[in-house]
Write a structure and sequence with these properties.
The protein starts with a helix and ends with a helix. It is 39% helix and 15% strand. Strands 1-6-3-2 form a 4-stranded parallel sheet, covered by helices on one side. A two-stranded antiparallel ribbon has the order 4-5. The chain is an alpha/beta fold and 163 residues long. The longest helix is centred in the N-terminal third of the chain and has 14 residues, at 18-31. It has 7 helices and 6 strands, in the order H-H-E-H-E-H-H-E-H-E-E-E-H. A hairpin with an 8-residue loop joins strand 4 and strand 5. Helix 2 (18-31) runs parallel beside helix 3.
């Protein structure tokens, strides 16, 4: 396992503080698991760097790292973007479309600003992670996908629980 200084150099981290070192230590420890991870912190603190560290030190490091900013996807389309859809599932769905969960099979999917998506969609994501399957919009047939989910939010943990 790489030590903290090597990790800092590798990922261009220049800060020095016990809190930073503790956070990096946690990232290193969870990297070699297949756990889903929520990275919380203010905007601009480097949450995506932590997700890249976790991916780079994981068993999936040779697979794709797919990063998506949930806040940049309109609420009306994010469900389809993540889960895909069948032809006719909604107005304008003229063909079947695979979503990001299908694209991330055996890979790492990083959802930045996951706190911006609806609580219902968060529940669907949790179910997909737990069961390694999900339903595309308009389908009654589950799709399978073995992805690792890393998420980040700038929303305070207390506020997140109250939503």
């Amino acid at each position: 396992m790489e030590n903290l200084q090597v990790i800092k150099q590798r990922f261009g981290i220049i800060g020095q503080s016990p809190l930073l070192d503790r956070a990096l230590g946690t990232a290193i420890r969870v990297a070699n698991t297949d756990l889903s991870v929520l990275i919380a912190g203010e905007s601009g603190v480097g949450k995506e760097i932590f997700s890249k560290i976790i991916h780079a030190l994981s068993a999936r490091k040779h697979n794709k790292f797919i990063a998506i900013n949930c806040g940049a996807i309109p609420e009306g389309t994010i469900n389809s973007e993540l889960f895909g859809h069948e032809k006719g599932a909604f107005t304008g769905a003229e063909t079947d479309r695979k979503g990001l969960l299908a694209a991330a099979d055996e890979d790492t999917l990083f959802l930045d600003e996951v706190g911006d998506i609806s609580r219902d969609l968060q529940r669907l994501l949790i179910r997909a992670v737990e069961e390694k399957s999900y339903f595309p919009l308009g389908s009654e047939i589950p799709e399978k996908s073995d992805f690792r989910l890393l998420t980040a939010t700038n929303i305070d943990e207390v506020e997140l629980r109250q939503r």
